[in-house]
Amino acid sequence: RRHTRLLTVTGVQTCALPILIAGTLSNLGTAEASARKFDPGIQHLHDAIAQMESLIAKKPDNTSFQHAVMLMWAHLADAYGDYGEDAKAMESAARFVEIARAQSRLNPNDQRAAADLGIALVKMVSYVPEPKLQDQSGALREALSILGPAAVKNPKNAETRIFQAFAELKYGQALAASG
Asked: Which one-letter DSSP state was computed for residue 174?
């Protein structure tokens, strides 16, 4: 209550508290997973996603909410992947791809949305076992077709360049696996 009153007094919008809660849960979950405390970390990430998705249900056109929940799905994929739950990591990364693709379609000129989609595709493929990697060559080609131009437009963006390099590595492995 005290926080709600403070937010009201300072003029912050009424939905700010649920956003702050979701962000805090996401940060906590990510930190816990990084500290190898997977069960509470994964639970906090699920709670953060549920909080953001309830906000999205009320304001489905809010791209900031969509971007926030998209990143939460990415963090959940990382947590599951670090925990050794590759199938759940792949499911979470697929949700990341779904949201990133929707945002990219909504905003075709938004470079961040395009880069997010490329990164999401690479992240999803990163959880595919080596024997099945050749099945993902289409996703990797798509990621490279997005990340290449994004890296040229913003050459100082290290994250885009790192994911581009990783996509190139995985694409090479997929081609080698296909014979």
From this structure: H
How many other C-beta atoms are found inside a 10 Å radius of the C-beta of residue 166?
18
> By the 8 A CB rule, do 48 and 26 touch?
yes
- Each as own residue / partner, the long-range contacts of residues 169-173 (CB below 8 Å, 24 or more positions apart, any chain) are 170/122, 170/125, 170/126, 170/133, 170/136, 170/140, 171/137, 171/140, 171/141, 171/144, 173/130, 173/133
CA–CA separation, 16 and 23 (whole Å): 10
Q: Which pTM value belongs to this model?
A: 0.83
Identify the pLDDT of residue 154: 87
Round to whole Å and give the CA distance between 90 and 76.
10
